[in-house]
Design goal:
The protein is α+β, with helices and mostly antiparallel strands. It is built from 17 helices and 19 strands. The radius of gyration is 26 Å and the shape is globular. It starts with a helix and ends in a 6-residue tail after the last helix.
């Protein structure tokens, strides 16, 4: 048996059994907590995801509907009724239809709702009639769905195109003019902000599988490969180890693409001496990880790459040292930002830690920190059912069980000097940093890990992905990738890009 096959089997066997499952009892508890949070009696409507119009598009259940039901079929709706202290939940689903199921797969059907999910089952086609009956005497409708204006509430103004859920509510409000429609989104976000032990177990599994994929791709990266090959291997590793698939569009950017924050074309051939920024992670059981590593295409960091990487590494470490229950997010951000400011000053990329530049327009003059020329995003965000999820740490501090990313970065675009407005006030800055920008041009570094706050500090749950420069170089020296591709065939199909 070849070394590659042995290694692949070992990696597969190393994966623990499926992470903790969300039980029906937990879903029921969530629904009860939601109705309890409402200010009064009424009908609560939670719309699930609609079936994609095109069969080549994958269906993905909406996060809020999934949170309260765990039901993953399309075109379903949760209706909860609260009246005089009594509560009842109805799940409206697509009926069993053997002829249709030949095309789309088996359905749970109405009869299966009670036995499998513990709610009263109804057909989705009867939703409008049910709501007409429940709202006939007026009252309050609490709405949760894909609404363009505050969850479908009676809020003036419209943002974005009218969604199907918007149109559904509009029709209801025309017929039931005495009904008050209330946005219940905040109530849901408050519940989702605190992760249960089962949720944390799923997030940990997503993080572990994501780290495995990052480690796997290090063995094959070499000059001449295409970014999409890295993407393909990572996403294959997600799936073969139980992941649901990418939790966002995989970002694999080499050379100049490493400085583009959300680059996801992933179709450039990598060259020796360049950096490769890989922001790739998986969902597991509906819960997301978020992980970024930046590595040298040649397998060894150049002195210039080491300079930038060390600053980002130190910034992440500085933020990590602040993580403990009760800590405000501002403390993490301040520590990381101070490290970035000082590091960039030493490299000559900014004039001083607190230096600013004129960044406004002729109509509106204003100053911006010079740091933002090279670091223009936030330090991190919560993760969960959504890759950018919710948590209360931004206002009340970190709590045991808070789960989030820390992801500082530095991106030296080769045209940075041209980005700075050519004004008299900026003339000195443009001259002073020009040489440093040229020296570090096209080096983009982001290091992102996932963290769970514990009673004594934190767990870095993506620790399986090599992070230090020495660890990365050691892992990249283990060249065990697939056979060399026939480059002539690829070029014949026009896949070569500058």
């Amino acid at each position: 048996m070849s070394r590659l096959i042995c290694r692949m089997l070992a990696a597969l066997l190393a994966v623990a059994p499926l992470g903790a499952q969300i039980t029906q009892a937990e879903y029921a508890t969530r629904r009860a907590a939601l109705t309890k949070s409402l200010p009064g009696d009424g009908v609560l409507l939670v719309r699930g995801g609609r079936d994609p119009k095109e069969n080549f598009q994958n269906f993905w259940q909406t996060e809020n509907f999934n949170y309260f039901t765990g039901f993953l079929e399309p075109d379903a709706t949760l209706v909860m009724v609260r009246k005089n202290g009594a509560e009842q939940s109805f799940l409206l689903v697509q009926p069993k239809d053997p002829a249709q199921e030949v095309w789309t797969g088996r359905r749970l059907g109405v009869d299966g709702v009670k036995s499998k999910l513990g709610m009263e089952g109804r057909t989705e086609s009867g939703l409008r009639a049910m709501l007409d009956s429940l709202l006939a005497s007026g009252g309050t409708l609490y709405a949760i769905g894909d609404f363009s204006r505050g969850g479908g509430a009676d809020v003036p103004g419209t943002v974005g195109p009218r969604t199907e859920d918007d149109q559904f509510l509009d029709a209801l409000k025309i017929k039931h003019r005495d009904v008050k429609v209330v946005d219940a989104s905040k109530n849901v976000m408050d519940l989702r902000a605190k992760k249960s032990p089962a949720e944390l177990a799923l997030i940990r599994s997503a993080a572990r599988i994501s780290a495995m994929a990052h480690k796997e791709v290090l063995h094959m990266i070499t000059p001449g490969m295409n970014e999409f090959e890295v993407q393909a291997l990572a996403e294959y590793t997600f799936r073969r180890n139980g992941g649901d698939g990418p939790s966002y569009g995989s970002i694999v950017g080499s050379g100049p693409n490493s400085t583009t924050l959300h680059y996801n074309k992933d179709d450039r051939f990598m060259r020796a001496g360049e950096m490769l920024n890989m922001d790739m992670a998986t969902y597991y059981g509906g819960y997301s990880a978020d992980l970024t590593r930046t590595v040298p295409v040649s397998g060894k960091f150049s002195p210039e790459q080491r300079d930038i990487y060390q600053i980002v590494f130190d910034a992440q470490a500085a933020a990590e040292r602040q993580v403990h229950p009760g800590q405000l997010w501002k403390a993490l951000n301040d520590s990381a930002t101070t490290t970035l400011r000082n590091g960039l000053t030493k490299l000559g990329l900014i004039e001083s830690p607190d230096a600013t530049y004129e960044c406004g327009t002729a109509e509106r003059s204003r100053n911006c920190p010079q740091l933002t020329l090279f670091y223009m995003h936030g330090l991190g965000h919560p993760i969960g059912l959504d890759v950018h999820d919710v948590d209360k740490y931004s206002t009340s501090g970190l709590a045991e069980g808070s789960v989030f990313t820390i992801e500082p970065g530095v991106y030296v675009r080769e045209n940075t000097v041209d980005v700075i407005p050519n004004t008299a006030a900026n003339a000195s800055l443009r001259t002073k940093i020009a040489a440093a920008v040229k020296k570090y041009a096209n080096i983009g570094v982001r290091i992102e890990d996932d963290y769970v706050v514990t009673a004594n500090g934190f767990d870095r749950i993506t620790s399986g992905a090599p992070r230090s420069m020495d660890e990365i170089e050691a892992e990249m020296s283990k060249k065990m990738g697939p056979a060399v591709r026939d480059a002539a065939t690829v070029e014949a199909y026009g896949k070569v890009r500058p």
